[in-house]
Amino acid sequence: MHTQTDIRTARGADLYTYLIGSHPSEVKKEGSQYLRLKRDHKIVVKRGPGVYYDNNDGASGNAVDFLTRYLGYSFQSAVDALLGGEAVQVEAVPHNPEIVPPAHTDTAPPEPIQGRYSRVYAYLVKTRGLDPGLVTQLIHRRLLYEDTHHNAVFMNAHGTMAEIRGTNTVVREPFRSRWGLKDDGYWFYAPKPDHRSECVYICEAAIDALSLYQLLQDNNAVYVSMTGVHNQWVVDSIKPHRETILCVDNDVWGQKLRAQNPDLQYMIPTGKDWNEDLLRGIRPKREAML
Description:
Elements: H1 4-11, H2 15-22, E1 27-30, E2 34-37, E3 40-46, E4 51-54, E5 59-61, H3 63-70, H4 75-82, H5 118-127, H6 132-140, E6 145-146, E7 152-155, E8 162-165, E9 176-179, E10 187-189, E11 199-203, H7 206-216, E12 221-225, H8 232-238, E13 243-246, H9 252-260, E14 265-266, H10 274-280
Parallel strand pairs: 11-12, 11-13, 13-14
Antiparallel strand pairs: 1-2, 2-3, 3-4, 4-5, 6-7, 7-8, 8-9, 10-12
Helix pairs in contact: 1-4, 3-4, 7-10
């Protein structure tokens, strides 16, 4: 376990020198003071105490933030590496933007901004098509806030887990992450929080779950985000206790999960996911439930 002094030291480490030595294929030098991330030249690292700037959304952060956000490190491994340990070799996996490596609870949850959550509100309403009243309700129920990087943070009701979604519409693959241990809860929306709902719809992400709610308008159910299609433990923890309907994406990853759970009913979106169907005005087909 790292001390607070270890963590502060790692956060202020010379990120420029570390990246040149440990990840030379990931970065490109610009003059003598800056590096750019090769896969996104708007992300810049400055020589000296670990500071980076993401010109996509105006965010900045320290050395630990950079390694966990852009290079797939866990918090613990990032601190180890920046304190002088071995560079972490991030295992290559088939690309699936819904797969989110779990973070660790020895870090604080993302810090909310002071003031109105304008960026998150605009993103969810204008870009994602969610109802303004629903977004306001989530904020009032402390299930949603905007962090200092202007990400949408979907915090579960117990405050033990959060699904984090970037709001930048310019980048092709917006930032996705998770705070909390892998098996420490999941995010859900219950239209009637004091009502015991017998039916649970399990989706891959919070925005999908909310989109499905708007399409179905079933106020007597619960809409769950498993925060990534590979979190089978979410399904296993729910299905013994409730009628469980799989509502994951219409893609190869979703099909694998459906095949993995032949005992469950499922609904398949017409498009790639329920948010796409919501934006296109496509209602769920009840006959798709098998």
